[in-house]
């Protein structure tokens, strides 16, 4: 078997077999196939696509390239969730204690943020003492005892995907649905979950800008999950503006506390309850979505879900007192109000620009090696459809950096304000469900 023949085959739009795909993935992981040939292969995939079977085989080859987490020692159906990334997306912080409150085990592995999107692990590490590294026995014991645990991803989880993703990033082949889907699903499969709920974001703050693209990605990932014997559901959610009102790390923890205290914004609460409800159904706690939604909503109003968050923080070494006193979380020195230049209505908010502004304030990373400031971020005071007067505060920037002009300019640029009220304001947060 020769890689050049397989590049030619895919270039002509032919379907690759399992053996051929596995040969490519294993050969590249071991360093036997050079970057320039894999780059050619990725470009052929970009233009010719992959069949459902090819995409599933690519996913499995990624899984087999490294460690596969064995969660068989955990009782019950292990349920995981994954977001394709957005701005202000702190849904994992909410759903882990919420789903655990109905007895469904959540064994969560999450990543760090890069670029304009945040990472769950970074947000949790803004809680002093919170451990995101647990040994296997402690991780399994916590899930069996408390029905929840969260850790950072293993360094040797899907190494082929990590290596290929780095190449995609510099060869303009990131935006290929088979490559995105296999990348996402390989990590979820290798993490050992029995069932997976996917939160596929669409809009200005998401990778998928149109609903058609998001639907295609969701359908592809659900098909992969089912072909590999994982119960899988995808929820397509709106990321045409930041989710909720907080962007950053410590301030997103604060907002997650608000949601679990029954004081959260409508959009964020709807996404969290929807994702959690499907997790609870896949985990076998409820027969249908409506009964799950009703029960989980009650867990919020009764305070049990909030108590679960305290328990999660405590068992992973953090100080649970921050739940009752969020001001104990890191605080920034500077707070800069971004003012409206004119009166009118907020027509749109470019969520990606808000994410970039937060990164410039210190809340995110430009490269994987960058450190982050847990106290940095943005509080959104105006959302799409809101009326504003000249000099009204649109958002507040939080930072410890004395130089913040660039972040201020990017944040202001995110807001489009016109005299007339927007003709259509997309109020629906959950746009579609693929099962």
How would you describe this structure to a colleague?
The protein is an alpha/beta fold and 435 residues long. Helix content is 43%, strand content 16%. The chain is built from 16 helices and 13 strands. The strands form four sheets. The protein has a four-stranded mixed beta sheet, with helices on both faces. Strand 4, helix 10 (211-227) and strand 5 form a beta-alpha-beta unit. The longest helix is centred in the middle third of the chain and has 17 residues, at 211-227. The mean pLDDT is 93.
Task: Please give a handful of descriptors for the protein shown.
435 residues; single chain; alpha/beta; Pyrimidine Nucleoside Phosphorylase, Chain A, domain 2; Transferase, Pyrimidine Nucleoside Phosphorylase, Chain A, domain 3; four-stranded mixed beta sheet
Topology:
Elements: H1 3-11, H2 18-29, H3 35-48, H4 52-63, E1 79-83, H5 91-100, E2 106-110, H6 120-125, H7 136-146, E3 148-152, H8 159-169, H9 177-190, E4 195-202, H10 211-227, E5 231-238, E6 246-248, H11 250-260, H12 266-282, H13 289-301, H14 304-315, E7 334-339, E8 344-349, H15 351-360, E9 377-380, E10 387-388, E11 393-399, H16 405-414, E12 415-418, E13 430-434
Parallel strand pairs: 1-4, 2-3, 4-5
Antiparallel strand pairs: 5-13, 6-9, 7-11, 8-10, 8-12, 9-11
Helix pairs in contact: 1-3, 2-4, 2-8, 4-9, 4-10, 5-11, 5-12, 5-14, 9-10, 12-13, 15-16
């Amino acid at each position: 078997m020769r890689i050049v023949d397989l590049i030619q085959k895919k270039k002509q739009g032919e379907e690759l077999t399992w053996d051929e795909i596995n040969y490519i993935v294993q050969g590249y992981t071991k360093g036997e196939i050079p970057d320039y040939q894999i780059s050619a292969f990725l470009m052929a995939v970009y233009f010719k696509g992959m069949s459902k079977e090819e995409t599933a085989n690519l996913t499995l080859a990624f899984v087999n390239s490294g460690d596969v987490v064995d969660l068989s020692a955990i009782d019950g159906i292990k349920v995981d969730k994954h977001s394709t990334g957005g701005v202000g997306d702190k849904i994992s912080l909410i759903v882990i204690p919420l789903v655990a409150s109905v007895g469904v085990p959540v064994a969560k592995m999450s990543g760090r943020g890069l670029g304009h999107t945040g990472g769950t692990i970074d947000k949790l590490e803004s809680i002093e003492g919170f451990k995101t590294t647990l040994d296997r026995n402690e991780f399994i014991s916590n899930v069996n005892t408390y029905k929840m645990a969260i850790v950072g991803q293993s360094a040797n989880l899907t190494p082929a995907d990590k290596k290929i993703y780095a190449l995609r990033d510099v060869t303009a082949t990131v935006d290929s649905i088979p490559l995105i889907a296999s990348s996402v699903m390989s990590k979820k499969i290798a993490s050992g979950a029995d069932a997976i709920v996917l939160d596929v974001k669409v809009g200005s703050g998401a990778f998928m800008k149109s609903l058609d693209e998001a639907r295609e990605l969701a359908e592809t990932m659900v098909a992969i999950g089912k072909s590999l014997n994982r119960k899988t559901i995808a929820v397509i959610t709106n990321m045409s503006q930041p989710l909720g009102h907080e962007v950053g790390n410590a301030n997103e923890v604060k907002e997650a506390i608000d949601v679990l205290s029954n004081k959260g914004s409508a959009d964020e609460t709807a996404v969290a309850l929807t994702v959690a409800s499907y997790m609870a159904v896949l985990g076998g706690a409820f027969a249908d979505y409506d009964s799950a939604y009703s029960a989980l909503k009650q867990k919020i109003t009764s305070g049990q879900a909030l108590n679960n968050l305290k328990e999660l923080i405590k068992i992973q070494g953090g100080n649970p007192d921050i739940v009752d006193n969020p001001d104990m979380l890191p605080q920034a020195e500077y707070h800069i109000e971004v003012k409206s230049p004119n009166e009118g209505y907020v027509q749109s908010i470019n969520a990606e620009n808000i994410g970039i502004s937060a990164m410039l304030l210190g809340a995110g990373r430009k490269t994987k090696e960058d450190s982050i400031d847990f106290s940095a971020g943005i509080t959104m005071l105006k959302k799409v459809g809101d009326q504003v007067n000249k000099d009204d505060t649109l958002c507040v920037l939080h930072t410890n950096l004395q130089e913040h002009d660039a972040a201020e300019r990017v944040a202001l640029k995110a807001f489009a304000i016109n005299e007339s009220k927007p003709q259509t304001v997309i109020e629906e947060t959950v746009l579609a469900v693929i099962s």
